Amino acid sequence: MSKPLDPTQFTRESAERIARxxxxxxxxxxxxxxxxxxxxxxxxxxxxxxxxxYQGAWPVGTDNIVTFYNDxxxxxxxxxxxxxxxxxxxxxxxxxxxxxxxxxxxxxxPLEQRTATFAGATVTRSIFGTGATSRITFFGTASTALIAxxxxxxxxxxxxxxxxxxxxxQMDVVTDVSASLNTANxxxxxxxxxxxxSFCGCGSTYTATTISSAGTQxxxxxxxxxxxxxxxxxxxxxxxIQVMTSVFxxxxxxxxx
Length: 257
Fold this sequence. Notes:
By secondary structure, this protein is mainly β. Among the domains are: 70 residues, CATH 2.40.50; 46 residues, no CATH class; 47 residues, no CATH class. The chain has 1 helix and 9 strands; from the N terminus they run H-E-E-E-E-E-E-E-E-E. The strands form 3 sheets. A 5-stranded mixed barrel has the order 1-2-3-5-4. The longest helix is centred in the first third of the chain and has 16 residues. 4% of the residues are buried.
C-alpha cells in the first residue's frame, strides 16, 4: 500500500491563478498545442568540458590527441587555437578541453609562476660611438727564456796608468860577444858586436778608472715568431643609450618549459 501524498496548501490568490490556467486549457481548441514536459534545451547542442592529458609540443593552429583523465575514459583529437605550447613535454601535462558541435578545442593549460626584476625608470645617456674598425698586424711572441748577463755594479773601482806613444829613439845593443886568450903574455881579449835599434819612446802618461763587474744578472729574451692581428677601433661621435635608474620585482605567469 502506497503512502498517501502530503497535502499541499495554496493561498487563495494562487488557487485562483491555477484555476484560470486549467479553465483556459479546457476551453482550448483541439488544434492548440497540448501541455508537454519536453527538455527545455536541445541535448545535441549541449557543450561538453573535460579534463585531459596531452604530450609533446603543441603549437598554435595544430591538432593533438588527448586522453581524458576522468570517467568515462577515451581520447579525442583537439585543436589548439590560443596557446603556444612549444616545449617537448615528454611526460604529459593536464589541460582543459571543450566540445562545440562535433569538434574539440583546447581552452586552458596550467601556467607557472615566476619572479623577475623589471626596470622602474630609465634615463638617456650619451656614450662614444665606434666610427670604424681596422686590422693591424704586429709581431707575436713565440716563447721567452731567461739569460744571464754581466752586471755593471759598483762593487770595486781601480785606477790604472798608461802612456801615449812618443818619438822614435836609437839604442845600441850587444848582439854577440867573443873572447880570445893570449898565452904569451897571459891576456884575454874580449870583442863585442853591437847593433843599433829604433824604439818608440814614451810621450806622456794618462790614468783611467775601471769598474769591476758585480756578479751576473738575468734578463728575459723574447723570440719573435710570425705575426698576429688585432682590431683597432676608432671613436667617432656619440650614441644614445637607455640606462635603468630604478628596478622593481614582480611575479608573472608563463607557459611551462
